[in-house]
Amino acid sequence: MKTKKILMTGNEAMAQGALDAGCTFYAGYPITPQNELTAYLSLHMHTQGRVFIQAESELAAVNMVFGASAAGVRAMTSSSSPGVSLKQEGISYIAGAELPSVIINVMRGGPGLGNIWPSQADYFQATRGGGHGDYRCIVIAPSSVQEAYDSMFLAFDLADKYRNPALVLADGILGQMMEPMQNHKARKPQSRKVNKPWALTGCIGRKPNIVKSFYMREGDLEKFNLKLQRKYKNISAKEQRYESINTDDAKIIIVAYGSMARIAKAAMNRLRDKGKKVGLIRPITLWPFPEKIFSQITKPQSHKVKFLVVEMSYGQMVEDVKLSVCGKSKVEFLGRSGGGVPTEEEIAKAVLRIR
Amino acid sequence: MEKIFAHPKSLRNISTHYCAGCGHGIAHRLIAEVIDGLGIRERVIAVAPVGCAVIAYDYWDFDCSEAAHGRALAVATAIKRVRPDNIVFTYQGDGDLAAIGTNETIHAANRGENLTVIFINNAIYGMTGGQMAPTTLLEQKTATTPFGRDVKYHGHPLKISEMLALLPGVKYIERTSLDSPQGVLKTKQAIKQAFQNQIDNIGFSLVEILSPCPTYWGMKPEAALEWIKDVMSKEFPLGRIK
Of A2-16, A277-291, B127-141, which range is least confident? Predict the structure, then answer.
């Protein structure tokens, strides 16, 4: 059977992906450039008998997601940078209560109110925790409308598997641009039923469940935090995802994620056409950061490779690349922010400048 | 002989961390008695606040969620929406419900969420050491109003129940007091009504309970009860508000 492709914006694709992945609860608050996502869900959640709430604030929205996740259903909120800052309180509580929730950030310019142009300046906030306390979110960075759709399945699955908040980190370009994509309706939908014996359902025939992140007795919080650390170590070992192109013979490897990687790929192809040995690594999970591929590439002494990290920020992911190559390779950086997007030409020039 | 008084099944038989003369223990027990009486223990999902009652879930014996400070009604909204057959209630202090959580409170009420809200008004922040609450009375001395609450600097005590009563989504609001055995019985009746309303799908129901905090009022427990009767209930009149 030939499957039909449909034309969608990234925002709509993420909304449809959430629906197809079994998202039962959504709460959100208007903010550009992710409004299409909320509007799409306001229609489809309603017609499919699921819960959609336009919340009074980002704080309320993320805490509603806390409640719905505590009650055992797949729940999600979405926003853009300033709104995601507001959500950090709830994300910290979700991490502390080990609830599986999904949060989308369609990044825009900052700091402050910034602007509504695309940006990748929330990388630190996303990958380092963002709110208070020692915690991590699983962070997935799609690079196309198709991948934006697919990311929702991965985000919900990983959130459930590890009882952890999962963030889908997109940007204004990806949210707004339209591309043909294929939904999973043609495929047999996987069973999304996950056993959640900890969920709040009413204590029929069992002892009461308590969902909390509060450990007052001496030593209890330290013990709990160590348990979280073991979980994060496990996620780090098992869930690193990336795409690598032309890295086998590359002398210079461009590192970029999200829509930035699309432009970086075009620059790589242009340089390859001119005979330059240039490759690309596109991290798909930003946390856990795909450090293994970097140590793999930098291991053989004979194969000296240099890296150019390209971001829509003034240098955030570049720190993870440096940590991953551990001083064994030169790491250069090209970045623009506040709405500036490094162009194909700028990237190509930056590659050629590397000595 | 028929047994007419016992330890409620919905309340664990352990001692609480509350100060001598505090009203929380009484309120916890009344809720447990009402839940037992209505036979809904296995349907209940409670949302505990941040404040002195933060570990209410250690005392109640039914499903319970924590909520960030002020967010109880956002958490409760979602639980009730995805599990409409469960009985969902929040238990919140004055700081939680009427200061940091005012937005969540007003909007949950305005949406007419079918929830039960138990609002403990003791005119002070107890857990953090007795600071001024939105409901602190004029001239009342607290850790952050050493000269007494002054209307010039702090405004008037916030009457959130009267404010909420203006909203069409709100179906029932009653203010009661724990200052006397009669007050305790009236409080239990009001709590029962607020739960019954949810069972009957009537909508947003709130009971505001004037509750003593002898420790941070700087009074003996008996004097604290007198103060509710003589002073606090003049500012916050008892009875059915809506």
Answer: A2-16
Pick the CATH number of B24-240 from 3.30.428.10, 3.10.20.30, 3.10.310.30, 3.40.50.970: 3.40.50.970
Q: Which of A212, A309, A208 is nearest to A256 (CA)?
A: A309
φ and ψ of B236, to 5 deg? -120, 85
Is B234 near chain A, with CB under 8 Å? no
- Residue length of chain A: 355
Global pTM value:
0.97
Q: Which ipTM score applies to this complex?
A: 0.97
Partner-chain contact A201 B60, CB within 8 Å: no
Tens of pLDDT, residues A141-150 = 999 999 999 9
Q: How far apart are CA B35 and CA B12, in angstroms?
A: 13
> Encoding tokens for residue A325?
């190559």
**pLDDT at residue A77 tops 50:** yes
b/e burial code for range A143-168 (CB count within 10 A of at least 16 → b): bbbbbbbbbbbbbbbbbbebbbbbbb
Residue B119 has pLDDT above 60, yes or no: yes
Residue B101 with chain A: CB contacts under 8 Å: none
Which residue does chain A place closest to B11, by CA atoms? A208
| Phi and psi at residue A52, to the nearest 5° | -125, 130
Contact B191/A at CB under 8 A: no
**Domains of chain A (ranges, CATH numbers):** 6-200+227-237 (3.40.50.970), 244-353 (3.40.50.920)
Is B75 close to A203, i.e. CB distance below 8 A? Answer: no
Residue B64 to residue B62: CA distance in whole angstroms: 6
Return phi, psi of residue A228, to 5°: -60, -45
Nearest by CB to residue A67, choosing from B48, B79, B107, is B79
H helical segments located in B151-232? 151-154, 160-165, 181-199, 214-217, 221-227
Residue of chain B nearest A67, judged by CA positions: B75
Nearest to A78 by CA among A127, A16, A121: A16
